[in-house]
């Protein structure tokens, strides 16, 4: 009877551990989402206390997960890449216009590019690490952009000769310098570019 009782109790001992790990994962994801929002608003040099306040945690919690600012920036970068990559299929699955899904995805991509601003400066001492992140960025996001473009082309909304990498590169170029010139609205220019994809099919 003792052996059976011990065996029966084993899964019950493991369940709290799994739950604790799941809670910790959710808390870390919430922290990264808050940090990304702060980075968009204030840049990657934003004070840690601002990030802690946005996440509703103490500064010690952030330093426990991310001992250096570079650790936090890289984690936010990867978190945003994954969020952007996962959003593409979700937007397409809503059943609306593929061009509209592309437009919504591009808005998320622009948010990501704003978050990315300043990353090179933070990681300037680790060029190899930065290159690895750039490769990861391309591997995850170019196929998603291509999926959206192909869906729009198959629906007859856009031309079939638009390359995903070129489009993303063009959007990135439009976003350069947006923080330094209050008269320049990168989001407006990107919106015109995406609207132009639709118009190019109609002309």
Automatic annotation (TrEMBL):
* Molecular function via GO: DNA-binding transcription factor activity; transcription cis-regulatory region binding
What PROSITE patterns does UniProt report for this protein, alphabetically? HTH_TETR_2 (PS50977)
Q: Does the keyword DNA-binding apply?
A: yes
Keyword Transcription regulation assigned: yes
Recorded hits in SUPFAM superfamilies, A to Z, give: Homeodomain-like, Tetracyclin repressor-like, C-terminal domain
Per UniProt, which keywords does this protein have? DNA-binding, Transcription, Transcription regulation
Q: Name one Pfam family in it.
A: TetR_C_43
The name of this protein is TetR family transcriptional regulator
Q: Give the originating organism.
A: Ktedonospora formicarum
């Amino acid at each position: 009877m003792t052996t059976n009782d011990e065996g029966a109790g084993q899964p019950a001992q493991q369940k709290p551990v799994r739950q604790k790990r799941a809670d910790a994962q959710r808390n870390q994801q919430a922290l990264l989402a808050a940090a990304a929002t702060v980075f968009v608003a204030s840049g990657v040099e934003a004070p840690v206390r601002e990030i802690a306040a946005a996440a509703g945690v103490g500064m010690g919690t952030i330093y426990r997960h991310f001992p250096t600012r570079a650790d936090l920036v890289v984690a936010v970068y990867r978190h945003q890449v994954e969020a952007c990559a996962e959003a593409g299929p979700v937007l397409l699955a809503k059943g609306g216009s593929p061009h509209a899904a592309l437009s919504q995805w591009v808005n998320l991509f622009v948010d990501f590019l704003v978050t990315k601003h300043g990353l090179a400066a933070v990681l300037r001492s680790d060029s190899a690490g930065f290159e690895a992140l750039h490769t990861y960025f391309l591997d995850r996001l170019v196929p998603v952009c291509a999926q959206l473009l192909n869906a729009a082309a198959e629906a007859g909304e856009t031309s079939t000769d638009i390359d995903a990498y070129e489009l993303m590169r063009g959007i990135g170029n439009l976003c350069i310098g947006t923080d330094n010139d209050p008269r320049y609205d990168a989001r407006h220019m990107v919106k015109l570019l995406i609207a132009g994809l639709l118009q190019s099919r109609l002309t």
